[in-house]
Design a protein that fits this description.
Blueprint: E1 3-7, H1 11-22, E2 26-30, H2 55-58, H3 74-87, E3 94-95, E4 98-105, E5 111-118, E6 125-132, E7 134-137, E8 144-145, E9 158-161, H4 167-176, E10 180-183, H5 187-197, E11 203-207, E12 212-213, H6 223-230, H7 241-245, H8 248-251, H9 255-266, H10 273-282, E13 296-297, H11 301-307, E14 312-315, E15 318-322, E16 325-329, E17 332-333, E18 342-344, E19 347-350, E20 354-355, E21 361-362, E22 389-391, E23 396-397, H12 402-418, H13 427-441, E24 451-452, H14 454-465, H15 473-494, H16 509-525, H17 530-536, H18 553-561, H19 573-606, H20 612-615
Parallel strand pairs: 1-2, 1-7, 2-3, 4-21, 7-22, 9-19, 10-11, 10-19, 11-14, 12-13, 23-24
Antiparallel strand pairs: 4-5, 5-6, 8-20, 14-17, 15-16, 16-18
Helix pairs in contact: 1-12, 5-11, 9-19, 10-11, 12-14, 15-16
Length: 638
């Protein structure tokens, strides 16, 4: 039994606690506030906050959300976390009003912690000293607001961070019709600017560069009207953003095929016009990778407000301030014709994110801790400390939610502490290689150090645990029969008549077409359309309970039964485009992967390592980042 201390009772800390307790470790969690929930229980969860990830995609794999598929409010998600804690009886392992002031690693490998406890009966405090074999840090990436940009130092009006944005400020803006500058176009910037645009006609958003935007629902309709309607009405599973970004067919494509489709989609009238315009401008320097080269704002409210004329958006690399005057240099006005570069503001709202610092973690001798998650293997295991110090909640998926990443890491940590798994001996070197690859991959957002690819990250950790999902044998056989007919038809069509293919490959075309059609029909029937759901539905975390340690396939069956294939699939223009693009590119990638894998395997055996820029782009996106093992079985598994 290992003594484990967890710091922070947000969703990531809770799931870490649950996995440690379930694995038989002696675990305690310290939370400095008076309740669980982390950011969702604090003022940082600004008014009217709706999640940008669906409730099913935010749910832990062994505790599916029983509510309909929708976008939760912060309060609803907090209620889910309360239910999760009750279900697994976690509260008895949590000490509230307990702030960890220091955690010191001794030469003997044991952690000594000083915890300041606030008495509940009076105002007195006392210090609790605790020793532990392992420390899990789950304090979140939203702890310390980033310092204001230096270019705003001359501003003399009111300045607040989004973590301070509240109803009182909104009421003041409405009453005084204040002139407000919102800095940043991430999810908080989109929400804040759209809300303030309803309260004052003088709201401006400043962006250093245009942002790439993904809508919550894959259409051009008003987003918040759909969110409200979705509270009482079931929406098709494939209408949610994560259906297009986390499905396994997309993950099976290479990054270029995946990215080019996004650019094609933005050039059609399927999505909000302003959203498409901003996304095209944002990714103009990454024509092949597009949204895969940058962080994506999963919220189109700012685009809608801009299109309706309720706010303006200025794109300028720099700004200078004096008093309440701001001058935007080399400025472009998004979706407008104004060329003015100077504005007066009463207040500035900084939606500029947060920074990471861990001054309370103290290491022996000259050993130091990098606060950059990309320096930690799998954004979790720091160099030289992977046996006793773990970070969960610092892998922010390009698509999908942070809690499920933390859950997968927690399952892995629990196995490591039980001695059932080992970290790779060269895990620190692997972390550095992945950090370099990630900076190059996310070339338009290289300094967002928590950014990871949802599918590749989950799959990488799952393969170390042994819980990567596998489909029933009948599904595997049907999928391979289908691919075999595709390959044979390709040979028939590509071989010139003067040079017929070998006898083994020269089957008549008509029977091949019939087998292809029959196998396609089988996808919709076999196991209630399991292959279709695997390829085109969101890849929810519950898939990782199908097999391996901690398996509970009934949970997956229950979730999939709630999304009837015929009722939960909307045939929309966007979905039709996705299918028409994905199927042929999927075929091409499956065939291309055979020689790519063979070359990769030979070079690996010989000890050669080609530059990442050569080998990563053509391989399936699932294996492009995060040290995800590419195996022979991947050539025939759907």
């Amino acid at each position: 039994m290992v003594r484990v201390v967890i710091v922070g009772a947000g969703p990531c800390g809770l799931v870490a606690l649950k996995e440690m307790v379930e694995s038989g470790h002696e675990a305690v969690l310290f939370e400095r506030s008076g309740r669980l929930g982390g950011v969702f229980a604090s003022a940082t969860a600004y008014p009217n906050l709706h999640l940008t990830i669906s409730n099913w995609a935010m749910a832990f794999s062994d505790f599916p959300d029983l509510a309909r598929l929708h976008y939760s409010t912060a309060q609803e998600y907090l209620s889910y976390l309360d239910q999760y804690a009750r279900h697994f009886d976690l509260d008895r392992h949590i000490r509230y009003h307990a702030e960890v002031r220091s955690a010191t690693l001794g030469e003997d490998g044991v952690w000594s912690l000083e915890v300041q406890i606030q008495s509940l009966t009076d105002s007195e405090q006392f210090t609790l000293r605790v020793q532990a074999d392992a420390l899990i840090v789950a304090t979140g990436s939203n702890g310390l607001p980033n310092t204001p940009p230096a270019s705003l130092s001359g501003f003399t009006g009111r300045m607040i961070h989004s973590s301070q944005y509240d109803e009182a400020f909104k009421q003041e803006v409405a009453a005084k019709k204040m002139k407000v500058l919102v800095v940043g176009g991430g999810e908080s910037g989109a929400d804040v600017s759209a809300e303030l645009g309803e309260l004052s006609p003088h709201v401006t958003v400043w962006l250093r560069r245009s942002v790439c935007v993904g809508p919550r629902y894959l259409n051009k309709k008003d987003e918040m009207e759909q969110v409200a309607a979705n509270m009482t009405v079931d929406f098709p599973a494939n209408s949610f953003l994560e259906a297009a970004t986390t499905n396994r067919m997309s993950a099976a494509q290479n990054v270029f095929a995946y990215g080019v489709f996004r650019r094609l989609l933005w050039c059609t009238p399927v999505l909000n016009r302003t959203l498409s315009h901003m996304s095209l401008a944002s990714t103009a320097s990454a024509l092949l990778r597009n949204d895969q080269a940058t962080y994506v704002t999963k919220n189109q409210r700012m685009c809608e407000a801009l299109q309706a004329g309720k706010i303006e958006v200025l794109v300028a690399p720099t700004v200078s301030t004096r008093g309440r005057s701001c001058e935007f240099h080399s400025c472009a006005v998004v979706d407008g014709t104004s060329t003015m570069q100077q504005r007066e503001f009463d207040a500035v709202v900084l939606c500029t994110g947060f920074r990471l610092e861990f001054p309370w973690i103290r290491l022996p001798g000259t050993q130091s801790l990098s606060p950059n998650p990309r320096g930690w293997y799998l954004h979790c295991f720091p160099e030289g400390l992977g046996h006793c110090l773990f970070f969960v909640g610092y892998a922010r998926p390009h698509q999908g939610g942070v809690p499920v990443m933390a859950e997968m890491l927690s399952r892995y940590i629990a196995q490591l502490l039980r001695g059932e798994r080992d970290l790779p001996p060269d895990y620190a070197a692997r972390a550095q290689r992945d950090a370099t690859a990630s900076r190059a991959y996310y070339s338009l957002s290289p300094d967002l150090h928590t950014l990871v690819d949802y599918n590749a990250f989950l799959e990488s950790v799952a393969r170390r645990i042994g819980c990567e999902p596998r489909l029933p044998a009948a599904c595997v056989l049907l999928a391979n029969l289908h691919m075999a007919t595709v390959l044979l038809m390709a040979v028939q069509l590509c071989c010139p008549t003067s040079s017929p293919p070998p006898l083994l490959l020269s089957l008549p075309l008509l029977p091949l077409v019939m087998i292809w059609a029959a196998s396609t029909a089988g996808f919709f029937v076999l196991h209630d359309g399991l292959l279709i759901k695997w390829w085109f539905y969101p890849h929810w975390a519950v898939w990782y309970r199908r097999r391996g340690p901690g398996a509970n396939p009934a949970l997956l069956d229950g979730v999939l039964a709630r999304v009837n294939l015929w009722k939960s699939t909307a045939i929309t223009p966007g979905f039709v485009l996705l299918v028409l693009w994905s199927i042929p590119t999927y075929y091409a990638q499956r065939i291309l992967s055979i020689p790519l894998f063979a070359v990769n395997a030979v070079l690996t055996v010989l000890g050669y390592r080609l530059p990442a820029a050569w080998v990563r782009p053509p391989r399936p996106k699932l294996f492009a980042l995060h040290d995800c093992p590419w195996r022979l079985s991947d050539l025939y598994m759907p």
